[in-house]
Fold this protein.
Amino acid sequence: MLLNYTYQNIQYSISVNWNGLDGKSSIHTAIVEQLSALHGRAFMAYWNIAQQLDEKADKLYSCIYLFNDQHYAVPYNPKNRDYFLVAFSDYCTCLEVGFASDYSPQAQVLLHIFQTIQNILQETVGIYLVDHAYQNKHFKRSRRKETRLELIKEPEPSYEFETALLQMLEQLNELQRRWVVKRFILGQTYQEIADEEGVSVQAVRYSILSALKKLNTLL
């Protein structure tokens, strides 16, 4: 993952992986390590905060994915929605409290970078909630006694669902609607959308994030 930031009026870019070799989130601590190597040990003062954020991110993703030899989605469970929202709230609180009243140059750089990650997680939340609403209304569930896990059988989208989806998309402006369709239905990347539309990746990401927030209020 490529992250851009400005430090001492100079622009930099760093590339970090989201997960470590153990499959757990390590992006926050990896950022602190790289900035410490590039700009000095003062950044290591934020190692504990970064470690806590990695743990919070892991908790969030554990509500969606199971990590083993393979990476696959947790079977649908209505109760999981509450756990998921609490996990995201914990992450946001940790970030806010960790940098409260700290105006050092190092803190401001890290806060800017970590807020970029927070925006990505918030987008994940929006996608999860839209998907959850679909599953809650249109998936039939059955239990297997030997695993005690819910199995999901996906029916053909009903007329009611298609109508509801169209009505939700109509609440977006033309630009948001077009970009949401490109991103989540056509599967295009932010970069591909930005290149086609002649805008920055940041503009695409911000517009889609705003659209997801609006869609979430309609669920």
Observations:
- The beta strands are 2-7, 10-15, 65-67, 71-73, 140-144, 149-153.
- The chain has three domains: 1-52, 74-149, 161-217.
- Residues 74-149 form one domain.
- The first strand starts at residue 2 and ends at 7.
